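User: quick one - fold this with flavin-adenine dinucleotide bound?
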Amino acid sequence: MTGIDRRTLLAASAAAPAAARAGVAPDVWDAIVVGAGVFGAWTAERLRAAGQRVLLLDAWGPAHARASSGGESRMTRSDYGPDEIYSRLAHESLGDWIALSARAGLPLFHRAGVLFLFQQDEAYARDSIAVHQRLGLRLDVLDRAALGRRWPQIASDDITLGLHEPDFGALMARRAVQTLVDGFVRAGGSFRRALVQPPADTPTFDAITLADGERLRARRFVFAAGPWLPKLFPALLGDRIFPTRQEVFFFAPPAGDDRFGPARLPGWADWNGGNIVYGFPDLENRGFKIAEDGHGPAIDPDGGDRTASPARIAFAHAYLARRFPALASAPLVESRVCQYENSANGDFLIDTHPAWPNAVLLGGGSGHGFKHGPAVGRLAAALALAGTPAPARFSLASKGRNQARAVH
Ligand SMILES: Cc1cc2nc3c(=O)[nH]c(=O)nc-3n(C[C@H](O)[C@H](O)[C@H](O)COP(=O)(O)OP(=O)(O)OC[C@H]3O[C@@H](n4cnc5c(N)ncnc54)[C@H](O)[C@@H]3O)c2cc1C
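Assistant: Sure. Structure tokens for the protein plus flavin-adenine dinucleotide:
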């Protein structure tokens, strides 16, 4: 956290009246946060910790089955090629995840490590190495022989370079968000399950309307609706956030074989000629995870089909046979369809609504947002409380209208 942002949050905390932290629902909340995914939950918690009386709303509950944050596991890594800003945010966030995990009953973070695999010399790999050196982050640079010795269960004949981040690993996504919201409520924050209507086009903004017509007033608002942002703000974000259909598979490792568990295999991402495939070892015995990072077709987060497609299952089997040969005939034990809520280039959206300075638009996690939740929450809270702008690449003005992904 930068000095200025920490000061902002501490000053707001000191200024908050004691009455605002106690008792019944107020007529006017200090802040209402719409969306209890990872971005909204961390923002609500930051605002609460700054002394604000906060109401967090979600139509289906924290990290529910269709939320982007509702998956089993999410990778945290600092490898971001040239995009140092994300390496910094990931590193900053890791400490908060570890602290939250230490307070939780079950682990929220598995320090399994993360391994990037490259078939040839890639600018992304060179840039990642340079960023890690600049930031003083640990990164092991491994050639094919070293990879083969350390992880013989990976077929690495075509790999020329491996980058291993020993300090990162897996976040247990759904459990982490639900733990965070539970702590938020125990500490005095309020959570309510309710559907918020798309706001009307008014010159100023001081209340949201729920599906049953109830109006809730607040001094400031944060709309962290993930892939539903285009539905809440169709004119503004309908062509700036693109939800895409992403399939995730879990395969059972061979019986009695621990080569594919987190003690012997890190989380991994295969550059695969730019068509990145990634996954996790058999975390908490759920199965060996594999997913494609390339954008799938467009999906409606409400009604989109969530059954796995034979074509993507066949791809996963073929990939396993090539990269993890011992899993070539591993049985598929679970599949999930989730969605990325992509901005045009993959940068997040953390900015005020163009007409309402007291309303923050928050989203665009673009398939890589989860790990950054703590840092994103800090940026969004500072913007909502004190108008401290987030970095320019998170502005609404920077959001294009054509999908041209650049951040990986
Ligand atoms: C398959 C997959 C793999 C991923 N892998 C990674 C990874 O390895 N590492 C990583 O860092 N990130 C990863 N991501 C991305 C990350 O999960 C998302 O960027 C992040 O979870 C987005 O969080 P969010 O809070 O913006 O959205 P969400 O989690 O979708 O939360 C938005 C919430 O808003 C609520 N809401 C919407 N509209 C309304 C309304 N009108 N009224 C009330 N509530 C409303 C919804 O119910 C929802 O709960 C992955 C995503 C997917 C789908």
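One thing worth noting: DSSP finds ten helices and 18 strands in the chain.
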